[in-house]
Amino acid sequence: MIPYLAATMTAVTFHLGYTGLSCEDCAPGYERSGQGPYLGTCVPARAGPECSAAGAISTQPSYAGTCQCKTYASGPLCDQCPPNSFHMSAENPHGCIPCFCSGVTQQCSSSGYSRAVVEINYPHGSRDQLEVTTSDAHAPFQPQSRPQLTSHDITFSSFYETPGQTLYWKMPSPFLGNKVTSYGGTLKYVFRYSGAGPLNGDPDVILRGNDITLYYKNRQPTHPDRDNVVEVKLFEDRWHRVDGQQATREHLLMTLADLDALLIKMNYLDDCSSSSLISVSLEYAEPRHTGNQIAYEVEQCVCPPGYIGTSCEDCAPGYSRTGGGLYLGLCERCECHGHATQCDKEHGFCVDCQHNTEGDQCERCKPGFTGDARRGTPHDCQPAATRPPCNCNNHSPRGCDSFGRCLMCEHNTEGYHCEHCKKGFYGDAVRGTPFDCTPCPCPATSDCFLDAYGQVQCRNCPAGFSGRLCDECAPGYTRSRTHGGRECEPIGHVGPSDVVFVPTPEGDKRVTARRQRRRRYRVVRRRFYRH
User: Fold this and answer.
1) How far apart are CA 344 and CA 445, in angstroms?
2) Which sign, positive or negative, has the C-alpha torsion 8, 9, 15, 16?
3) Rounded CA gap, 78 and 99, in Å?
4) First to last CA, the chain
5) In angstroms, rounded to a whole number, what is the distance separating the alpha carbons of residues 65 and 70?
6) What distance in Å separates the CA atoms of residue 260 and residue 207, rounded to the nearest whole number?
7) Residue 291, Cβ density class (10 Å: 0-12 exposed, 13-18 middle, ≥19 buried)
8) Which residues of 226-264 are buried (b: 16+ CB within 10 A; e: fewer)?
9) How far from 523 is each of 77, 504, 520, 529, CA to CA, in Å?
10) Which of 137-141, 302-306, 471-475 is least confident?
11) Is 177 left (phi over 0), alpha (psi -120 to 50) or beta?
12) Domains and CATH numbers, the chain
């Protein structure tokens, strides 16, 4: 034996409490004190409680007697879940699971639901005809050939129709929708394929929901011409986003909250000749006892008003989804004006409007009912009375409103039924012709009417006028010499036309020289005579 190696081995055997070729580790029953040279001294381990195997990084406390807890673990022994987390597990590298609750609360606990399974199992009698598609959600794909159902599987053999494309089995509706309780469960499928060429490196499973796409790539080898079994846990550390980053718990739960697509890869070889799916199953959880394992990984949140679901992922009846919020949006009360108790959870329109109302918000009365549905009482909309006849004497082209009142009277008429002539017009509007109402022959747009003899008579003559048509001067007035005698003015009135200017005689001795340089005039007042 080499001398220095023998010496080293002798040293290891000689010093109690150490192990390793270089005595770098403490032997069982010893722990490192942190004192002494290099790595510290190994001293006999002190008797005491071990750290939690589920919540601590190591079951052995440090020399100081403390336990080093995982991210979501607390307590002296790391055996407790901190606030806003639940379900401690040794398999969980973080200890406990943080509450998700769609971001609307942080209070949750383990639901205690039982596992259940939705599955397709062709050897056991399933006859589901699956759709073949690609990973591109925006490019619908429909091959010319259909998969063939057998008593053992469903098989597709027409890959020559889509050279260079990766095809997927698209799971039917029982696998889709709200699958939040599938968190922590298992997706398992059995398949077989044949062909040649290199392996296809595209994702094996694709989840798509709430505008989020997650990929899973199987790390275990698969083999052609034999049954292959794949089991994938629905934990975030198994899934990746489109950009290659690892998914978070929030990503996975948001996707599962409204799962639009679950795709399983068909062609595992670049030159695949056939692919068969034998069975597929997806675990979820139910509140009833199913005889299966308890779904401890499924959270049960204490939801605020307006939210329901184990993770508060749905809006309660009478609430609908709006923008805002951290993850799935906010649930706000629907506005149905008290006429409906339910509305569409995603779009907000009211469902089954009552009290004779209609509309997205039950804001209108149904035909045959009248009132204001927005008042919010059960008696807002009452049966409409019998609609009165519409009689507008042929003067309203738009007809009547619901009360029988004419909407727009023409031909110089007015009134609920266009039965009167407008001010400034006279005639009989109920005759029903466009010429029923004639302009009044009165001065200053005075109104007029037909007297008992059927003659036109002005209603109010202007000052100074009188007579049936206001065409005579009233007592104390006389015809004006201006305006062609069409006006009447008070007797004795002096107007501009009654003043005449005459020159002063040339020989008047009393006119001074200064006044001679000017032309002077004197006013002679005319006499007024009655006509």
Assistant:
1) 63
2) positive
3) 18
4) 167
5) 16
6) 8
7) exposed
8) eebebebbbbbebbbeeeeeebebbbbbbbbbbbebbbb
9) 132, 10, 10, 19
10) 137-141
11) left
12) 114-286 (2.60.120), 334-384 (2.10.25.10)
**Nearest C-alpha neighbor of 181 from the set 115, 91, 120, 263:** 115
Dump pLDDT digits (tens) for 58-92: 998 887 778 999 999 999 999 999 999 999 999 99
Whether the CB-CB separation of 207 and 261 falls below 8 Å is answered with: yes
CA 491 to chain CA mean position, Å: 84
The C-alpha atoms of residue 448 and residue 454 are separated, in whole angstroms, by: 12
| Tokens at 232, concatenated | 């994938």
Whole-prediction pTM value?
Answer: 0.64
- For residue 424, the Cα-to-chain-centroid distance in whole angstroms is 58
Closest CA to 125 of 168, 154, 157, 145: 154
Q: Give residues with Cβ within 8 angstroms of 296, minimum separation 6.
A: 87, 89, 110, 112, 184
Q: Are 102 and 303 in contact (CB under 8 A)?
A: no
CB 425 within 8 A of CB 446: no
Whole-number Å distance between alpha carbons of 371 and 329: 36
Q: Are 330 and 315 in contact (CB under 8 A)?
A: no
48 three-state secondary structure: coil
- How many whole angstroms separate alpha carbon 202 and alpha carbon 134? 11
Tell me the backbone φ, ψ of residue 72, rounded to 5 degrees.
Answer: -110, 65
Question: Cα-flanking dihedrals φ and ψ of residue 108, to 5°?
Answer: -155, 170
> Using a CB cutoff of 8 Å and minimum separation of 24, what contacts does 43-46 make?
43/17, 44/17
Own/partner pairs, 76-81, CB within 8 angstroms, 24+ separation: 77/49, 77/50, 77/51, 77/52, 78/51, 78/52, 79/51, 79/52, 79/54, 79/55, 80/55
Pairing of strands 314-315, 307-308: antiparallel
Q: Which of 67-76, 187-196, 359-368, 521-530 has the lowest mean pLDDT?
A: 521-530
Residues written for the chain: 531
Question: What tokens were used for 265?
Answer: 């890869």
Q: 299-301 and 108-110: which strand pairing? A: antiparallel
Query: How does pLDDT run across 343-368, given as a tens digit for each residue?
Result: 998 889 999 999 999 999 999 999 88
Residue located via tokens 């846990």: 233
Q: Please classify residue 140 by burial: count the beta carbons closer than 10 Å to its beta carbon, then call 0-12 exposed, 13-18 middle and 19+ buried.
A: exposed
- 204-to-119, 217, 258, 347 alpha-carbon distances in Å: 18, 5, 21, 34
Query: What DSSP line would sit under 436-474, residue for residue?
Result: SEEE---GGG--EEE-TTS-EEESSPPTTEESTTS-EEP
* Identity of the amino acid at 525: R
**Structure tokens given for 195:** 């062909």
Q: What is the DSSP letter of 22?
A: T
